[in-house]
């Protein structure tokens, strides 16, 4: 560049330097007159080509540096914003040179400003570029034309532009009615144009954000955050978290920025374009609230670390997905974890280590909110006109601020850490909330709780807080366990608890981390006890009203998953840990033994109810022999219900509640000395007699006698009298009309299932045909009973649900199910083709990331009459069809099937016999059947490995 050109780039014309750079890339050396008619020297397409090349080369360079870990996430986001700044300034320079009259009159004045996240100097690869065209009150046509020209070029560049054109007065008017606009303008950063306009706007916005307006803004942002959290699950421990909007995510850090800037004053540079300003306000050094001086060095370090961690994860997420994706789904978690260097360590997979770091970081953000927000709110209160001290004397030496409990001036948590638990217990007993400033003090003194691990009084207070009712809508007292966890007190009091904080379970079954799952289970137990679920689980509510071991029950819920993530059987390890933890919490030997037993067996009832035939007397006797005590049976059922309900809202349904209730009743009958489960003949005779008494008024006597002779003992024990009556009608109508196939669908909404009953001639592969047809119809089988009557007819019953875990009730759906089953059994339905079409709408990419190793267990000991085959594998459309087809080919008769899914893992259990009605005994045949079943599981196209047991 010539000396004369260098001279022209000084002073007021320095804004044109980006354009000169771009024109020089084209080999052009125009003078000022040529710039004023730049459209004659450089076409629109040429400027587009230059800008594309400029952005493309810069973005590639930044991405390479970031992915090779030469720069951090925040530094890369800052570089992307600076790159975009440079391109926009060059474009504006071109537009103004093209117009030739830029800013020559007040009406021509224009300032292009970055707002929102882009205004803060940070930009993710596929995020929107938010800009404001700030104009004079009466913008000229020339200014409007320049704005349109700039926008069209930006759109042609493929940039996602969020834009607004407003005058200064329009901005002031809009911020009064739209909190989103006010928030965006807090990060206003002028890029180029008339900087005086931007300075005026900033000054006016600052003057406007005072007193009531400031209070309204602060309250609005806090309420907005609460609504956002509720919409996304209200927990930072969702296993597929929203990085940007979720609780404890990047938006929460940005909210602290906005609250601090609005209430406490945290300035931003006017342009961000000079070296001095970038040194004074370096975006890469962390969130702006750190500079306010209200955090300790350690807290400030955590804030900066969280800021950079989230930006690093966000950039990886954008680059991997190629879009503005903000949700950390299962398919991207292992990729990002690998890119960030999280390798498998011991028994913990790399993805689990990465996600635990994520959840612990989100927890740090939540704690930062507890630390900083009270300062903002207190500052706001003191600025209100006529504000006075709201501190009052409270109960037991504590103070009250605005009706909330706060430690007294003489109380020092460092010197007497027990005071922290005493304050929470005082709030519990007096049914009041703890002041945010008190929570701040708990967080800052959490480490002193270590000294309380063997303190009996602290243990007593903790157990009172643990067992405090968690469902009191008419009272102010909160649920205390989340407070103990969020402040860190629980982890310091119980060191084993700290090992499950943020512990992820990489599956599609659990939606919370281990600590959040346990807390949710305790909360649900409290709701059951309070009666808020009495309509849904009446038996559980009745049981809680007559418990001797309430303390042991709550502690067992707290500890039931305490050993997750340690490798091995977490139930066995947890039972051992309970023997050490319970005495520290003040439980006596009997209570300790009960808790340890409950933790050891906390999966026993659910496993039996969902994967075993509860009509098999051996099942009930074995269970009763393990449980032995009616009180332990009550405790175990309550623990099971709380555990299941806390896994996910989709896990619990009326059908599972029914199975657990039936299992409980049968075991309780044995434990209480009633009819023994082994008295099969007596029970069969009783069932047949009830059926006869109810059928004689409805059907001819010969039809009744014929029906009573058809069923084998397992049939009479497998259904209630009402079902026997329906089946008798089906058999009677089938004989009367000589129907080869009879299908009946009976919705049972209170159990969440539809009962499908099929009566037809038995033949090999019948189960497989029906299972495949039900899959084609979009239904899932949750249980099945297979009965061959003495006349050779099959009476098969399937309990099915729709994709939402509910019963089919719509007449059109029921009619379609019936028709498809009839067509399949008559050979008019191509099941294989139907399943292939179903596969096209199968699992999503994120579900494919979860590995479910195939597993087949063949058990000859758990039933006196049948061999039990348990099959574990990835759930998919047609899985049950493939498995049962394999069993049919191996000449096995299925007596009953029990179908359960845990997210993507299917657990299908079959009670089988060979063609001679015998259990499987030959070791070679058992090995062969296991091998062919594993092979059928490998038919899943996403299953890559198999294992056997």
Structure description:
The chain has 949 residues and is of the alpha+beta class. It folds into six domains: 3-208, Beta Polymerase, domain 2; 234-272 and 283-368, Nucleotidyltransferases  domain 2 (Four Helix Bundle (Hemerythrin (Met), subunit A), Up-down Bundle), CATH 1.20.120; 390-438 and 447-471, no CATH class; 507-677, no CATH class; 679-729; 730-937, no CATH class. 53% of the residues lie in helices and 11% in strands. The protein contains 41 helices and 15 strands. The strands form three sheets. The chain has an eight-stranded antiparallel beta sheet, with helices on both faces. A four-stranded mixed beta sheet has the order 3-2-1-4, sandwiched between helices. Helix 16 (350-383) packs across helix 18 (436-444). The longest helix has 34 residues, at 350-383. The radius of gyration is 35 Å and the shape is globular. This is Bifunctional uridylyltransferase/uridylyl-removing enzyme. Keywords: Hydrolase, Magnesium, Multifunctional enzyme, Nucleotidyltransferase, Repeat, Transferase. It catalyses: [protein-PII]-L-tyrosine + UTP = [protein-PII]-uridylyl-L-tyrosine + diphosphate; [protein-PII]-uridylyl-L-tyrosine + H2O = [protein-PII]-L-tyrosine + UMP + H(+).
């Amino acid at each position: 560049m010539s000396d004369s050109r260098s001279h022209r780039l000084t002073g007021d014309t320095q804004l044109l330097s980006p354009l000169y750079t771009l024109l020089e890339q084209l080999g052009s050396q125009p003078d000022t007159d040529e710039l004023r008619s730049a459209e004659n020297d450089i076409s629109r397409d040429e400027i587009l080509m230059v800008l594309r090349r400029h952005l493309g080369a810069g973005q590639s360079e930044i991405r390479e540096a970031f992915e090779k870990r030469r720069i951090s996430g925040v530094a890369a986001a800052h570089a992307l914003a600076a790159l975009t700044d440079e391109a926009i300034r060059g474009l504006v320079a071109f537009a103004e040179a093209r117009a030739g009259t830029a800013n020559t009159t007040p009406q021509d004045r224009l300032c292009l400003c970055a707002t929102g996240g882009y205004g803060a100097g940070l930009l993710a690869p596929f995020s929107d570029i938010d800009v404001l065209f700030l104009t004079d009150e009466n913008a000229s046509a020339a200014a409007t034309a320049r704005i349109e020209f700039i926008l069209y070029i930006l759109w042609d560049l493929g940039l996602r532009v969020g834009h607004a054109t407003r005058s200064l007065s329009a901005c002031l008017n809009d911020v009064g009615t739209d909190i989103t606009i006010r928030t965006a303008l807090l990060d206003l950063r002028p890029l180029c144009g008339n900087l005086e306009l931007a300075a005026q706007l900033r000054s006016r916005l600052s003057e406007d954000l005072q007193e009531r307006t400031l209070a309204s803004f602060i309250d609005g942002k806090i309420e907005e955050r609460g609504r956002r959290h509720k919409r996304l699950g209200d927990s930072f421990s969702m296993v597929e978290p929203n990085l940007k909007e979720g609780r404890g995510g990047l938006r929460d850090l940005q909210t602290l920025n906005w609250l601090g800037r609005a209430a406490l004053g945290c300035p931003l540079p006017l342009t961000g374009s000079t070296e001095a300003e970038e040194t004074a306000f370096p975006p890469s050094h962390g969130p702006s609230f750190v500079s306010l001086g209200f955090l300790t060095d350690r807290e400030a370090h955590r804030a900066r670390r969280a800021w950079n961690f989230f930006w690093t994860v966000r950039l990886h997420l954008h680059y991997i997905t190629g879009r503005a994706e903000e949700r950390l789904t299962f398919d991207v978690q292992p990729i990002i974890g690998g890119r960030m260097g999280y390798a498998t360590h011991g028994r913990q997979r790399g993805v689990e280590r990465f996600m635990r770091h994520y959840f612990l970081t989100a927890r740090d953000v939540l704690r930062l909110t507890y630390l900083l927000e009270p300062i903002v709110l207190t500052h706001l209160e003191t600025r209100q006109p006529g504000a006075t001290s709201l501190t009052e004397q409270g109960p037991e030496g504590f103070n009250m601020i605005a009706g909330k409990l706060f430690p007294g001036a003489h109380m020092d948590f460092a010197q007497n850490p027990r005071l922290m638990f005493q304050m929470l217990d005082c709030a519990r007993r007096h049914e009041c909330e703890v002041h945010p400033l008190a929570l701040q003090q708990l967080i800052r003194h959490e480490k002193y709780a270590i000294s309380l691990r063997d303190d009996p009084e602290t243990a007593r207070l903790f157990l009172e807080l643990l067992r405090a009712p968690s469902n009191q809508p008419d009272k102010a007292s909160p649920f205390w366990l989340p407070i103990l966890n969020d402040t860190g007190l629980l982890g310091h009091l119980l060191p084993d608890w700290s090992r499950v904080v943020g512990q992820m379970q990489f599956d599609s079954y659990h939606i919370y981390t281990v600590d959040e799952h346990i807390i949710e289970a305790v909360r649900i137990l409290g709701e059951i006890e309070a009666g808020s679920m009495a309509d849904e689980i009446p038996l559980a509510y009745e049981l809680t009203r007559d418990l001797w071991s309430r303390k042991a029950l709550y502690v067992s819920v707290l500890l039931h998953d305490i050993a997750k993530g340690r490798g091995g059987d977490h139930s066995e390890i947890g039972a051992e840990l309970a023997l050490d933890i319970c005495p520290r919490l003040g439980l006596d030997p009997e209570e300790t033994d009960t808790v340890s037993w409950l933790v050891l067996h906390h999966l026993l009832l659910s496993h039996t109810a969902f994967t075993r035939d509860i009509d098999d007397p051996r099942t009930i006797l074995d269970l009763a022999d393990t449980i032995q005590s009616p009180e332990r049976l009550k405790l175990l059922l309550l623990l099971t219900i709380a555990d299941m309900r806390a896994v996910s809202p989709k896990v619990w349904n009326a059908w599972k509640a029914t199975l657990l209730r039936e299992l409980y009743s049968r075991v309780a009958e044995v434990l209480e000395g009633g009819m023994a489960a082994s008295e099969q003949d007596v029970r069969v005779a009783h069932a047949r007699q009830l059926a006869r008494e109810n059928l004689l008024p409805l059907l001819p006597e010969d039809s009744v006698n014929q029906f009573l002779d058809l069923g084998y003992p397992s049939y009479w024990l497998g259904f209630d009298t009402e079902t026997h009556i329906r089946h008798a009608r089906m058999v009677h109508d089938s004989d009367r009309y000589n129907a080869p196939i009879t299908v009946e669908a009976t919705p049972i909404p209170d159990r969440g299932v539809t009962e499908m009953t099929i009566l037809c001639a038995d033949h090999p592969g019948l189960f497989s045909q029906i299972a495949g047809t039900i899959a084609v119809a979009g239904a899932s089988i949750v249980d099945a009973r297979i009965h061959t009557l003495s006349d050779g007819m099959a009476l098969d019953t399937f309990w099915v649900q729709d994709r939402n875990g509910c019963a089919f009730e719509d007449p059109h759906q029921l009619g379609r199910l019936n028709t498809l089953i009839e067509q399949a059994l008559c050979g008019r339905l191509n099941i294989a083709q139907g399943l292939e079409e179903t596969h096209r709408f199968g699992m999503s990419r994120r579900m494919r990331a979860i590995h479910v190793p195939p597993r087949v267990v063949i058990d000859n000991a758990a039933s006196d009459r049948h061999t039990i085959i348990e099959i574990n594998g990835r759930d998919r459309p047609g899985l049950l069809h493939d498995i049962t087809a394999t069993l049919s080919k191996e000449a096995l008769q299925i007596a009953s099937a029990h179908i359960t899914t845990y997210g993507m893992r299917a657990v299908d259990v079959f009670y089988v016999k060979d063609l001679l009605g015998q259990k499987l005994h030959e070791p070679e045949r058992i090995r062969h059947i296991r091998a062919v079943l594993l092979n059928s599981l490998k038919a899943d196209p996403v299953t890559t490995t198999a294992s056997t047991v």
